[in-house]
Structures are given as C-alpha cells and as structure tokens.
Amino acid sequence: MNARKFLQVALGIVTSIGGFLEAGSIATSAQAGAGFQFRLIWPIVLGTLLLIFLIEMSGRLAAMSQKPLPAAVRERFGFNFFIVPLIAGCIVDFLVLGSEVGGASYGLQLVTGISFRVWAIPVVFAAWLLLWNGTFGIIEYGVSTLGLITLVFAVAAVKLRPDWLHVAAGVLPTLPQHHAANYWFLVVSILGATVSPFLFNFYSSGAVEDKWTEKQLPENRLTAAIGMSFGGLLSIAVLVCAACVLFPNASQAQTYDQIQQIVVEPLGPAAHYIFGATLFIACLGAMTEVSLDSAYVCAQGFGWNWGENKSPRDTPQFSLLFSFFLISSAIFSLLGVSPLGLTIFSMAFTTLILPLIVLPFLVLMNDEHYIGPHGNGWFTNSVVFFAILLASILALVAIPLEIFGASPS
Amino acid sequence: MTHNPHDEPPRLHLVRDVLDSALKDRNEEPLGRADRIVIALHGDAPPQVVSIETGSSALAARLSPRLGRAAHRLGRRFGLRRGRPTRFRWSSVTSIGPDLHLDIDKSRSPASLWERWLLRHIIRRIPGMK
C-alpha cells in the first residue's frame, strides 16, 4: 500500500472511530453497565460484528454497481416493496434524529446550565448550516475528527481499573439473573444503536459520491473492520465506566446528569464539561448523518438529483428534505420529551425494522447483476441473515414487554 | 437487457430492465424513475411500448387504483402539471441498463418543473442562495 492509500485508509478509520459514538450508543451502553455491570458487553460485540459485515457490504455494493443501497432496492424489488422500508426507515430516522437533537442540546445544558429545550433550535440551526454550506468531506472528516473527543470514555475506563477478566467474561452471552424484561429490552436497544441503518446508507452514498470502483475494495474492508472495531470498543468503554461507577451504588442511568458521573468520578469535576462537549459533538455529527440519510433514501429512491458535494441550487428536493427532517425533529426537545427515554426507544425500534432493510440488501449482495464476481460468501450470508432475524424477533417480544410494564425496573 | 449466447437477439424484460430504472437525460442529469410503462394495443397487432411515465400519480396508481385517483385529484388541484405524469416517448430512449438514457434536455423537460419551482420559490429566498 503506497503512502497516499495508507493515509486515505487511516483517515477513513479515524473518522469511523470519531463518528461511532452518538446518543444511542452512549445511552444504551451506560444503562446496560449501570443495570447489569459487564453482562451486556456481548450485544455490543455482536452488533459491531454485524455492522462490520454490513458496512463492508454497502461499500462493496457502491464500488461494484455505482449505486447506493436505496436506489438498488427500488430497481431490484420495485416501488411496491420499496415504499415499505422507505416509510419505516423515515419514521425511525425521525425518532433517532429527535434523540440526537435532544442529546446535543442536553450536552450544552450540562456545559451552560441553560435548559436543553432552549438549545434545541440553535443546535438544529448549527447542524443545518453545516449541511447547507458544507461538503461531504467536511461532514465526514471534520465532524468525525472532532468526534475523537469521545476517546475520553476509553481514558476514563482505563483509569477506573476494572477487573479486565470480569470485563472479558461479558463478551459471552449469559441469561439474566434479574430484571429479565429490562435485560432483553436493553439487548435490543444496544443492537439498534450499534447496527444503525443510517450508518451504512451514509457510507454507501459517500462511496458513490467519491466514485469508488473495484480498486477501493481492499480499503473498504480495512476501514469497515478496523474503524468499526475501535468504535465498538468505545461503546464497551462507556459500559465499563458505567459498570464501575454506577452499578456498585445501584445508581440509575435514566438521565444524562446521572450518566456524566461515569467520567466525572475517574477524571475529576472538570470532566463534567468534557462530558457535555463530548455529548454535543457526538450527537451533532450523528444529526448531520441521519438527516442526510433520510434525504438520500428519498432522493435516490425517486430518482432526484442528490449529493452533499453539490450545491442546494442543483439538488432542491434533496436539500429541502434534509432541512425539513432536521428542523421538524426539534419538536421532541421543544416539547420537553426526555432525550434519554426517546433514545432508548428509538434504538429498539431500529432493531425491529432491520430485516426490512437488511434482507433485501442480502439479496442484492448475491445478485451478479449488481455485484459482479464479488458476491457474498455463505458465511457472511448466514451470519447476517440469522443475527438480523433473531434480533428482530427479540425486538418483537421485548418492546411490548417494556412498554406495557413487565419490566420491574 | 440480457444477451443470449445462442445467436438469439438480446431480450428486454420490461419489468426487470425498464420499470423503476433511473431516467437520465443526454447530460446524465436525473429525470426521475420509470414509474409506469405505457403499452398500446392496436387490434390484433402485438402490444407496443409507446412511452414511459414518471410522477407521483403514476406511482400512487401502482400501489392501488384508489390511491392513484386521490393523487390525481390532489395533482389537479395543487400540481404544476394538473396531475398529469410526465411522459417520455419510447422512441427517445437511447440506451437501457443500468440506467435508462433518453434523448431529452432536462432543462426543457416538464420533469424538472418541480425542481425549478422549488428553486425559484424557496431555495433562492434563503439568504446567500441568490
């Protein structure tokens, strides 16, 4: 690999790490650590493995067919199928976007003491300015590089000196010894937070915008595997911090005020500001990606002009769509909906709709017409198919149990 | 379009190769997607593909006839083309697969009416967009 390629791969990996953590992964990992110590590391590992497969697949599809996922799904399965994942995806994106706006606003509340409800509109406006005037490079590299601030969780986890053998044991799935409904609901939410469809839609659209070809396949594999693995480690770091700080005192992780303790205790009172800034930056990055995702899916599905590298003058429908999604998602924070509660539920709903998005994706990845000689092997097909199906069945059971109060927590 | 190695002419599968394909003008600008294919029946003569339609009423009609009628009514009231989908003659198709290329200039085509309307009425009114 020459120096330029090495730099490109390194930049891809750095941005994957910096862009990994957002409201969903911080909230679900913190609640898992606070409630079940290290026992829920395994869904993070499983989710990250699945994400590696899916990110690699979406990059491969884009490189081989020059088509992003939504466009290929519309062409291969027709409009009458496409409309189902389109509507489900837009609803879930809207909820996730509301969670990210809530998270970014709450980050500013922690730093300034001014209510997150006041911050919702300025936060949305900042993200909109970034999208309206920025390019894909600024969003991908700029915001994600700032996102490296999330490494603070890794530093805090190491400083807390957990029993690493005990941590490693959490990689193996175990049955819950208490609060079973809450345990399974958190498994579902963690999977939804990790395997976010907006991540692989965003990735494949970026690959098409950057005009990837077959030559980029090795870089694609490296970026997916290394970037996502380190990202998953950051989620585990959040869980480890919560397990060390909140679990021993039976403390809750029901608000971001409580969750901030996981860095304040190991790093000192000033870390309160670092946590606020981390939450703000991580969620701001995710806001840009999720609102672009909704616009990508609609524009690519309906055949409109799209592209974050193009001026809004050339992409009116696309630009107005991401603006609409972004601005309207502030409604949750303006109404005072708990950002953390919204986040946990939107992550669980993400898992529920995964088969609608991933199963047609698997069919495309085995269709020579799109992928040429680089189709999936039986191992990738089996792992992705069974894991997604299991996660979705689990979501179907766990979500009603949590909503209708079967959880004793 | 598939090519048969046994000296048969290439075959076109309308649903697989045409329906839902991206439409591109002669400058590679997107014109929408092939939302509906119009086939004419003339007595005993074989059916003939005459045009491709793109637009919300054509799309809604594929989901259900009732939805199609509702979209048409809405289009007549609020649409820029009074609910009529944009129609491209089959003879303007220059190549098929992976996208459908048409000998059309987007800037003069009704397919870009909405784009131009949004540009004029919303985008250009945003500060810094003139």
Which terms summarize this structure?
heterodimer; A: 409 residues; mainly alpha; 20 helices; B: 130 residues; alpha+beta; three-stranded antiparallel beta sheet; 4 helices; 7 strands
Explain what you see:
The complex is a heterodimer of chains A (about 400) and B (about 130). With about 400 residues, chain A is mainly alpha-helical. Helix content of chain A is about 75%, strand content about 0%. Chain A contains 20 helices and no strands. Chain A has helices spanning about 5-20, 25-35, 40-65, 70-75, 80-110, 115-135, 135-145, 150-160, 165-170, 180-195, 195-210, 215-245, 255-260, 260-265, 270-300, 315-330, 330-335, 340-365, 370, 380-405. In chain A, helix 1 packs parallel to helix 12 (about 215-245). Chain A is globular, with a radius of gyration of 20 Å. Chain B is of the alpha+beta class and about 130 residues long. In chain B, about 30% of the residues lie in helices and about 25% in strands. Chain B contains four helices and seven strands; from the N terminus they run αββββααβββα. Chain B has helices at about 15-20, 55-65, 65-80, 115-120, and strands spanning about 20-25, 30-35, 35-40, 50-55, 85-90, 95, 100. In chain B, the strands form two sheets. A four-stranded mixed sheet of chain B has the order 2-1-7-6, with no helix packed on it. In chain B, a hairpin with a 7-residue loop joins strand 3 (about 35-40) and strand 4 (about 50-55). In chain B, helix 2 packs antiparallel against helix 3 (about 65-80). The model of chain B has no long low-confidence stretch (mean pLDDT about 85). Classes of the chains: A mainly alpha (about 400), B alpha+beta (about 130). The interface of A and B includes residues 301 and 316 of A.
